[in-house]
Write a structure and sequence with these properties.
With about 350 residues, the chain is an alpha/beta fold. About 40% of the residues lie in helices and about 20% in strands. The relative contact order is 0.12. The strands form two sheets. Strands 7-6-5-8-9-11-10 form a seven-stranded mixed beta sheet, with helices on both faces. The protein has a four-stranded antiparallel beta sheet with strand order 1-2-3-4. Helix 2 packs parallel to helix 7, helix 3 packs across helix 4 and helix 3 packs antiparallel against helix 7. Bound molecules: zinc ion. The site of zinc ion (ZN) has 8 residues, from loops.
Length: about 350
């Protein structure tokens, strides 16, 4: 666990040049590019390298200032609701769904890791359960909290300064400050090579500017044998409404039609302001194939369990039909679960 900024300077690197940092004048300082990273509310601001920010970040600092003024007197659930009420066009029901989703973060992370544990066991890959862990795109920090149960050093990274105001309170009141929070972009992470045993990116990759660059950064910071647990909604999800706006089939429409379609179907939610770009199965696996030092596996719903009925057994007995069903599950399922393992060398 990191308790001082001097300790933090020892483990972090410059997000752009990866040189060592030092703690000078209440900032983290890169001796190579002479860039300094201020610390605000105890959270280092290390957002560098992305120049064209999405609409989501346009009035981010103003929203964070407003939230800071509420943070002292509001409870965590109320502050979470306030954060998303300020953030983007949401209908009252969609606001409640987002708030509940964030409040359930710890249980959700436990369930997600449980699912990945099964996938890892099938591949005979031991899932890391101690050491260093990163919650990449940590939201308001509720998911990150679950990692503090097993891991000695836990980081939560998120570029959004409004959510980080909430995360700071969540960390302090719920998790005894055991999380080290940082503001940074996934494309330029301030960590040394081979630093993490586990990286979780739970429903994050669909929100980043450059998914491949983020995956390559994760590949760089994973230890050999370390793992990335990645979940992400499927662009061609044909079975359930999109989790961000609770509207079906958004990903089937061309880009320019999505905003009016979502506004019409949801009764006022904005798609553009949510900054979502879900990946198809093919897009995701195309990116994963570029990771030369990793093995990976994208899970699909289990077809032939011990309790499967005669219909499922019939499908699985016919090789052609089985392929078709597997293909449909990958292509049109609700979400992707990708387990990525950095190879030993
Ligand atoms: Zn630098």
């Amino acid at each position: 666990m990191i308790t001082t900024f001097k300790d933090l300077a020892d483990v972090l690197v410059c997000p752009l040049c990866h040189s060592k940092l030092s703690w000078q004048d209440h900032s983290l300082f890169c001796n190579n590019c002479s860039d300094s990273f201020a610390v605000s509310d105890g959270i280092p601001e290390m957002c560098r390298g992305i120049n064209h920010l999405p609409a989501l970040f346009a009035d981010d600092h103003q929203r964070a200032d407003a939230l800071r003024s509420y943070a002292k007197d509001m409870s965590v659930p109320d502050l979470i609701r306030q954060c998303y009420q300020l953030a983007a066009c949401r209908t009252p029901s969609s606001l409640e769904i987002t708030t509940k989703y964030m409040l359930d973060g710890e249980a959700r992370m436990r369930a997600t890791i449980g699912e990945f544990r099964q996938v890892a066991a099938q591949r005979k890959w031991p899932l890391p359960c101690a050491g260093t862990a990163l919650d990449l795109g940590c939201g308001v920090g509720t998911t990150t909290g679950h990692l503090t149960r097993d891991f000695d050093m836990v980081f939560g990274v998120n570029p959004a300064c409004d959510e980080m105001v909430v995360a700071e309170k969540v960390n302090r009141e719920w998790f005894h400050n055991r999380i080290t929070l940082l503001r940074a972009f996934g494309e330029h992470l301030p960590f040394q090579d081979r630093f993490f045993d586990l990286v979780c990116a739970v429903d994050v990759i669909e929100h980043v500017a450059n998914p491949l660059a983020v995956l390559k950064e994760v590949e760089r910071i994973l230890k050999p044998g370390g793992m990335l647990l990645l979940t992400s909604p499927n662009q061609f999800n044909a079975v359930s409404p999109d989790g961000h706006v609770q509207v079906r089939f958004v990903g089937f429409f061309p880009d320019q039609w999505r905003e009016p379609y979502v506004r019409w179907r949801s009764g006022g939610c904005s798609w553009r302001k949510r900054n979502v770009q879900p990946l198809s199965y093919w897009r995701l696996t195309k990116h994963l194939k570029q990771l030369s030092t990793c093995a990976w596996h994208v899970n699909k719903p289990v077809m032939l369990g011990p309790k499967s009925g005669p219909r499922t057994r019939f499908i699985c007995a016919l090789p052609g039909l089985r392929h078709l069903v597997n293909w449909l599950l990958h292509a049109l399922g609700k979400e992707h679960l990708a387990l990525v393992r950095k190879l030993d060398n």
